[in-house]
Write a structure and sequence with these properties.
By secondary structure, this protein is of the alpha+beta class. A hairpin with a 4-residue loop joins strand 3 and strand 4. The protein contains eight helices and 27 strands. About 15% of the residues lie in helices and about 40% in strands. Strands 13, 14, 15, 16, 17, 20, 21, 24 and 25 form a nine-stranded mixed beta sheet that branches. It has a six-stranded antiparallel beta sheet with strand order 1-11-10-26-27-12, with no helix packed on it. The chain is globular.
């Protein structure tokens, strides 16, 4: 009997290692602005610059990705105040709007009130985060942050004082960065690194599953891997730089022909970018190969009837081929169909965003500095 109790308690303990954060797929800023008839005006005023957050200038940069749609709920303070945040593996700071913010974006989002939390402490520093479309400024403080049943003590986070206008159209209140401390603004220890340091997770990695389903099933799991989310083996790829989750990409091919990244390039796997982004000339080449025509705003438009006839695109990462079919890289909306390949300007850097992660369950291991990929189910 005693032996079974030990086994049972071990099973209970194992199941508790899974700290799941359900991700909600909400309306994107692009959809919200289109509905108000403001999208064309906005995109001219604030050109999309998906690589803004990856250009090192000493401040941690983030982009205004108009297509971001996955967010989850966290709470800060005692008693807890709840916020929706984008879990962003391409940045490292946590920040939320505060009651000291008067920007338009803070009027339609939840705001943290430090005076209502008995565990809050002010930090001595200000915070500035550059966006592709402006910036967020504020102050640092620390408090208890609760994520998926895990309470992180004394987590330093940003309280916004001003926010870029664009943020008003984002569904999420703030951002929770999951990349490395080396790129954190003010050298703040990121939330997940604190979870490891405080012994709050069973394993020093987190995994992300983005469901193809528009509503349900997407989640981040801290300290665990859920084998029901993928098929086959996990392929482990070493990071080429432990700042973002950056890896070596060998090539991008269609029908056996190299169409981009000839001779190799660098790619970042990023939950905080919705598209697959690359150098503009190479993205144009991929889009022409798959039969897309680019409109005046850089959107690659395709005929919705052609999806089943469009080719697969293969990304070879560290010697391993990862194929993305047209059903995954084409998105359909009320205004038609477009590809998920976005222009990143002249930077020789690729971002494998949500279009890629929906196809491949991703394990981020900051401890071993590896990323694991397996075919999603």
């Amino acid at each position: 009997m005693m032996k079974w109790l030990v086994v049972l308690s071990a099973l209970v303990a194992f199941s508790e290692c899974f700290h799941r954060i359900p991700l909600i797929k909400g309306k994107t800023a692009r959809q919200a602005l289109k509905e108000k008839g403001l999208w064309e005006k906005y995109r001219k005023m604030y050109p999309y610059n998906p690589l803004a957050k990856f250009i090192q200038t000493g401040t941690e940069s983030m982009t205004n990705d108009a297509d971001l749609s996955y967010y989850g709920v966290i709470s800060i303070g005692t008693p807890p105040q709840s916020f929706t945040v984008i879990f962003d593996s391409g940045s490292s700071n946590l920040w939320v709007p505060s009651v000291y913010c008067t920007s338009e974006a803070c009027q339609n989002h939840k705001k943290f009130n430090p005076q209502l939390s008995s565990t809050f402490k002010w930090g001595g520093e200000s915070l500035s985060i550059q966006y592709g479309t402006g910036s967020m400024t504020g102050y640092l403080g620390s408090d208890t942050v609760e994520v998926g049943g895990i309470s992180v003590a004394s987590q330093v986070f940003g309280l916004s004082e001003t926010e870029a206008t664009f943020m008003a159209s984002m569904a999420a209140d703030g951002i929770l960065g999951l990349a490395f401390q080396s790129i954190a603004s003010d050298d703040v220890v990121p939330v997940f690194i604190n979870m490891i340091k405080q012994g709050l997770v069973a394993h020093p990695y987190f995994s992300v599953y983005l469901s193809g389903d528009s509503e349900a099933g997407s989640e981040v799991i801290f300290g665990g891997i859920d084998s029901t989310h993928y098929t086959g083996e996990i392929t482990w790829i070493p990071l080429s730089s432990a700042t973002y989750y950056q890896i070596n990409m060998d090539s991008v091919t269609i029908n056996g022909q190299t169409v981009a990244c000839s001779g190799g390039c660098q790619a970042i796997i990023d939950t905080g970018t919705s598209l697959i982004v690359g150098p503009s000339t190479e993205i144009d080449n991929i889009n022409s190969w798959v039969g897309a025509t680019t409109n005046e705003y850089g959107d690659a438009i395709v005929n919705c009837q052609n999806i089943q006839n469009m080719p697969e695109v293969t990304f070879t990462l560290n010697g391993h081929a990862f194929t993305v079919p047209a059903s995954a890289y084409v998105s359909q909306s009320s205004s038609g169909c477009s590809t998920g390949f976005g222009q990143g300007g002249t930077q020789q850097l690729w971002i494998l965003g949500d279009v890629f992660i929906r196809e491949y369950y991703t394990v981020f291991n900051p401890h071993t500095k590896y990323v694991g990929l397996a075919k999603s189910v």
